[in-house]
C-alpha cells in the first residue's frame, strides 16, 4: 500500500532526473523497403515462371516421398509386423517419428499464437511459413499412429462413432486424449493459417486479374472469399485472428503435454515422471525453431529476402533455441537428480541404463545436439554466421529426434524384469517410411512456396518503419 | 477490372453448407441402415440341399432341438448326421424324392452339404453349452425356428448384439426347463425383473465384457 500511496502522492523526486537509455527498436524491414516492393517481392515468388531449382527439388522430394508410399504399401499388404517392434519394445520408431514431427509443428503455433498475443512483431516475416510447416508436420506425424494400428481401415475406431460392434474409446487412455489433442491442433492450425492468408490471397487475386490471368485470379479469388480490404473486413478479420490466437495459445502447451502423457501416465521407469509435460513442450518449441531456421535460411538465400528476414529475426530465433535448449538440458539433469533423490532402484537403473546402457550412443548424440549445440548461440558471432546457424539448426533437429528415441526405446528395452530385456533395431521398412516423410514434407512445403504467399504481406507492411507514424522518433 | 465472379457466388457458402449437411445426413442414414449387420445379415435364408422344414418337424411333430443338434448342451453346435435323419426316414416316406440326397448320402458316406446360416467369425470364441446351460434359450439368437420352413437368420449377430445381452442378462434368461422351448417366455416377462435378477444371481451368471472374453 505504501507504494500506491507514494504513486498517488506524486512521483518520487528522483524520477525526473532519470533519463532512460534511448535504445532504438530493431528495424524489421531493412533498407526502408516500400509497400509495393514487399507486395512485388512476396507475390512475385508465386507469380514468376517456375524456377529450375524448384523442379529439381520437387522431383527429388517426390522420389524421397515414394519411400514412405512404398513402406506403407508394404506394411498394409503384409501387416504391422514388418516394422521392427518386438516385445519388449512395442513402441519404437513409429512413436518416435510421430512425436518428432508433432514437436516440430509447435514453433509454428508458438509464433502464430503466443508471439501474436505478446506483440512480438518480428513474427510477421516467419509466421506464414512456420504455420505451413506446422500443418505439414502434423500430416507427417499422423502417418505413423494411423498405420501403426495395423488394419488401417479400422483407424476410424479412434473416433467415437457409434457402430454395431459397440467398440467405444477408453477415455482413461492418454492415447485417446492424443487423438483429440492432435486433431484439434491440426484443425486450428489450418484455420489460423488460412484466415491469416485471406488478405494476401486477395492481393494475389487482384494482381493476377490485373495482368489478365483470369484462371489463377478465380482460384485465388475463391479462397479470398470476396475480400475487398474494407474497414469492416479488417475489423472482423483482426477480431477473428485474435480469437484464433487465443484458442491456439493453450494448444501450444496442451498438445505436447498430452503427447508426453502417452509416456508419463504409464508406470514404466524412465517414462513415469512428472517433469515430462514442461520438458516435452520446451523440447517441441526447441525442435520447431530448429526446423523453422532449417527451412527459412535457404528460402532467404534463394529469394534474397534479407530485407524481410533480417539478422534481428535470426537473432530472435537463435535466442529462443538457446532458451528452450537450455530448459531441455535442465530437464535432463533434473531427471537424473530425481532418479537419485527418489531412491527408487528401478528409476535409478533406468537413467543409468539410458546414459551408459546399450543405447549410450543415442544418449550421447542427444546430449551433444540438444544441450551443447544451442550454447553456441550465446555468441553474437555465431548468430551472425548464417551458415553456422543453419548447420546448428540441423543438429537441433537430429538431437530432438534422438531425444524421443532415447526416451522410448531405452525405457522399454530394459524394464523391471531382466528376463524380458531386449534390444530394438529398426527394420528397413521403418527406415524407408521415416526417410520418406521428409519427402512428403518437402513436397508439401515446395508446393506452398510455389503457390502461396510465403510471408504475411499485409502484416509485413504494418511493421515497416513508414507504417509507424512516429517512425524514427525515439521514445522520450 | 472485370468481375471475376457472378453475384450469385455470394450464395455459394450457404449452398455449400446446406449441401454438406444434406450429404452428411444422407450418408450417415445410409450407412446406418444399409451397412450394418441388421441389414446385411438379418434375413439370410440360403436354399438348403434338402428342403428340411423345421416348422413341420419341430412345430408340428414336436421334435426337441437336441434330438438332431445333440451336442449343443455339452460340446457345441452340431449339424445332424445323415444317420439321424434315417432313424425315422428308413420307416417314413422312404421313397420321397425330396429325400433322395439323404439316401444317397447314407449309401455313399458323403455328408449332406448343408449351408451354414449363422456364421460366427473365427476370431470369436463362442460356446453353445455355456449359454444353454445358463438359461439362454435357442430363440434368443435363432428366433422361432419352430415356425420356419427355411431357416432364416433373425438377429444381426453383431458384437453389439452379443454385448446387449452380456450387459443385461437378466432381460434374456429363461427357466432351465424353457431353454429349448421356443415359445416360452423369459423369466423377466413371466415373473418380473426381480425373479430374473435372482436367477442371474443364483446361477452365478457373469457374462464377460472384456475383449478377451470372446476374442481369445
What's the alpha carbon Rg of chain B, rounded to whole Å?
25 Å
Radius of gyration of chain A, in Å, reads: 25 Å
Major sheet summary line of chain A: none
Structural class of chain B: mainly alpha
- What is the count of helical runs of chain B? 12
Characterize the overall form of chain B: extended
The chain-level structural class of chain A is mainly alpha
CATH homologous superfamily designation of chain A:
Formate dehydrogenase/DMSO reductase domain
Main beta sheet of chain B, described?
none
β-strand percent of chain A reads: under 5%
CATH uppermost class of chain A: Mainly Alpha
Count up the domains of chain A. 1
Overall average pLDDT of chain A: 91
Q: What is the H/E order of chain B?
A: HHHHHHHHHHHH
Task: Report the helical percentage of chain B.
Answer: 40-55%
